[in-house]
Amino acid sequence: MDPIAASNMLYMDCDEDLIEMYGPMKLQNARLILIPLNDNNNPQRQNGGSHWALMIFMRDSETDEISYQYIDSAGGSGLTERFSNLEQFL
User: Fold this and answer.
1) How remote is the C-alpha of 19 from its chain's centroid?
2) In this predicted model, what pLDDT tens digit does every residue of 31-79 receive, in sequence order?
3) Exposed e or buried b per residue across 46-75, where buried means at least 16 C-beta atoms within 10 angstroms of its C-beta
4) Could you give the CA distance from residue 79 to residue 26 in angstroms, rounded to a whole number?
5) Measured in Å, how far apart are the chain's first and last C-alpha atoms?
6) How does DSSP classify residue 28?
7) Which of 31, 55, 69, 79 could pair with 35 in a Cys bridge, judged by C-beta atoms 3.0 to 4.6 Å apart?
8) Which residues are CB-neighbours of 88 under 8 A, at least 6 positions away?
9) Looking at residue 40, what is its pLDDT?
């Protein structure tokens, strides 16, 4: 997933807008999604943040269960809480 798309999803409040913008990506059909996360807390600030982490969503092809892995060189900088908006697309 493009970092800008991931960032937009994290900051958008309106579920209808999220579905309209990102529904066509058909993320619910994907088996593997790589989502870059940035610690920028201000969506108005371009090039903000100083740390990146990676969220990996994997869907089991037999059971359709979703699991995820969070990779963060800072050892858990708190970015996991920011992906809750993304779960509705999976």
Assistant:
1) 14
2) 998 888 877 777 677 677 778 888 888 999 899 888 888 888 877 656 6
3) eeeeeebbebebebeeeeeeeeeeeebeee
4) 24
5) 13
6) G
7) 55
8) 15, 18, 19
9) 75
Mean pLDDT lowest among 27-31, 37-41, 83-87: 83-87
User: What is the rounded CA–CA span in Å between residue 69 and residue 54?
Assistant: 8
Instruction: Report the run of H or E that residue 34 belongs to, with start and end.
Output: strand 32-38
**CATH for the stretch 3-89:** 3.40.395.10
Distances from the Cα of 25 to the Cα of 7, 21, 34, angstroms: 15, 9, 13
- The domain segmentation of the chain, as residue ranges, is 3-89
81 or 19, greater pLDDT: 19
